[in-house]
């Protein structure tokens, strides 16, 4: 259930950032069938980690399947570009979304990753630093910590 809520929050933030209302056609849906289809096929996933080089045992802050791609270099490039475009579109809303997931955090640095077809996560080159949260709300960072 928690993953479905994260999907809905991410989808809503992207739609809002792109100036689309919720009455249009949906790129992503939050039902279990869609999630299972993405994990079973050729899919592009975007994730946020607190490191640029996550190990397999690291837990992502957020993971989202965004589209189907071919499992080749072109599919990988398309996936990376899509993850970057979605992150940039949701840039203004991303701190609030992340804080709602994290609760309390001080001076967090987050890194955007992408992967296709279950491969290893690859850092996209986009990161955001100095995110501070208190009680799931964005706050100004304390420079002493």
Automatic annotation (TrEMBL):
Query: What's the protein name?
Result: Uncharacterized protein
Q: Which organism is it from?
A: Photinus pyralis
Signal peptide range: 1-19
Report keywords, A-Z: Signal
